[in-house]
Design brief:
The chain has 122 residues and is α+β, with helices and mostly antiparallel strands. It is built from two helices and two strands, in the order αββα. The longest helix has 14 residues, at 2-15.
Length: 122
């Protein structure tokens, strides 16, 4: 049921934009994404599998969001068709989720290291 809810919420939040959710305070100084707010009720283990002190992995992302091909991206919002973040000319589908996405802080996507005008910090 949680995965179904997550899929629905993710589809709704991503379909309007290629940006990640806004940061909100979770606990103390820790921030997290507003679109993941319901996950924090279960603690940190949803993403930090096994321990909150462990770094998250792509496997945790895929468990909820599905593989990279199942995540909708509104291509009409891309600077150019080649700017599709999940169909990289350089990485194809090999870049880590964490190369572009961060849960607890804003992060510039990997592509911005060279293509500075394609994406905003997320």
């Amino acid at each position: 049921m949680n995965k179904l809810l997550l899929s629905i919420l993710l589809s709704l939040s991503v379909s309007g934009s290629v940006m990640a959710g806004d940061l909100i305070k979770i606990k103390g100084k820790t921030e997290g994404r507003v679109n993941h707010e319901f996950i924090y009720q279960d603690g940190c283990q949803t993403c930090h599998q096994g321990s909150a002190k462990k770094n998250t992995t792509d496997a945790a992302c895929v468990e909820c969001h599905g593989d990279i091909n199942s995540i909708p991206v509104d291509e009409s919002k891309l600077a150019i068709p080649e700017a599709h973040p999940h169909k990289s000319l350089h990485y194809n589908q090999g870049a880590s989720c964490l190369a572009c996405h961060a849960e607890h802080e804003k992060k510039a996507p990997l592509c911005t290291e060279c293509h500075r005008t394609w994406f905003e910090e997320m």
